[in-house]
Write a structure and sequence with these properties.
elongated, Leucine-rich repeat, LRR (right-handed beta-alpha superhelix), 4-stranded antiparallel beta sheet, 18 strands, mainly beta, 8-stranded parallel beta sheet, 2 domains, 295 residues, LRRCT domain-containing protein
């Protein structure tokens, strides 16, 4: 049932009912008039699950002024907006399990001042603003399991003094820099506020994969990449030539000419049959000097 057809159904909704469960598919975006009906003022619980909801217009739930529970499981939502509601402060429970939310901004949950239960399980959350839950001290249950978070600032949970939190199923990074988060989890453990603690495990570095995050005590650094050897460039031209056996091995000659001369030399690879005597000739181009040193 498309969202534009919803008013035809809800206009005949009788006042006095407290719960509304809707079964539909491929709903798309719920527009601002879809739930506009005076008969919905008594509804306190609304479920629209597995309906293909991709978005919700501002004011769409404005007629549900007593709505205390909203279940939008297994839809295609990418955001949460308090402006969906006429009175967001009345909402106590919000279940958005299995949607496609990626980021919780500071303003995402503003207005939900009396929220006690929030499920964002199995979304795509990778980032939470440090002030994302700053005004939600009333939260008793927060489920963030099964998302894509690697690190979260403990500041994000600073106001949740007595909230039971689910953080399992995320690819946590336990390398250096995560000490504050590890300490935060240990504190939750000590107060029995961490759900499924043995499943809150490290994904990286590889040496800690599978270990509970709260059980990490040392700072583990990833091994550095192998160093690339650097060879200094020669300042002159180095050549070698084979010396006949009859020449003295201690002879040193220096010749100086007014102009640089061109020098030819024999360069190659010597096998085991070659004579071990070589001459190394360094041609210093700027001065025109040739130094021959026997070795």
């Amino acid at each position: 049932m498309r969202s534009e057809r919803l008013p035809a159904v809800l206009v005949a909704f009788r006042p006095g009912y407290s719960s509304l469960v809707m079964f539909s598919k491929d709903v798309g975006e719920i527009n601002s008039t879809a739930f506009r009906s005076d008969g919905l003022a008594s509804v306190t619980r609304l479920r629209i699950e597995r309906a293909g909801v991709t978005g919700i217009s501002e004011g769409a739930f404005g007629s549900l002024v007593r709505l205390a529970f909203l279940g939008l499981n297994r839809n295609l939502l990418t955001e949460i907006n308090p402006n969906w509601f006429g009175r967001p402060e009345v909402l106590g429970e919000l279940d958005l399990t299995g949607n496609q939310i990626e980021v919780l901004h500071e303003s995402t949950l503003s207005g939900f001042l009396n929220l006690t239960r929030l499920s964002l399980r199995e979304n795509r959350i990778r980032l939470i603003d440090p002030n994302g839950f700053s005004s939600h001290a009333a939260l008793a249950q927060l489920d963030l399991s099964g998302n894509r978070m690697t690190r979260v600032s403990p500041q994000a949970f600073g106001s949740l003094w007595s909230t039971r939190i689910g953080l399992d199923g995320n690819p946590w990074n336990c390398s250096c820099g995560a000490e504050d988060f590890v300490d935060f989890l240990k504190d939750l453990m000590s107060r029995s506020l961490l759900d499924r603690p043995d499943q809150v495990t490290c994904e990286s570095p590889p040496s800690l994969r599978g270990r509970p995050v709260w059980n990490v005590s040392l700072c583990v650094m990833s091994p550095p990449p192998p160093a690339v050897p650097v060879h200094p460039k020669p300042t002159g031209i180095l050549t070698s030539a084979k010396v006949p056996p009859s020449r003295p091995t201690s002879e040193t000659k220096t010749s100086v000419g007014p102009e640089p001369t061109t020098m030819s030399s024999i360069t190659g690879t010597c096998g085991s049959s070659c004579h071990p005597l070589y001459i190394y000739m360094v041609h210093l181009i700027p001065t025109g000097k040739v130094i021959i040193i026997a070795w």
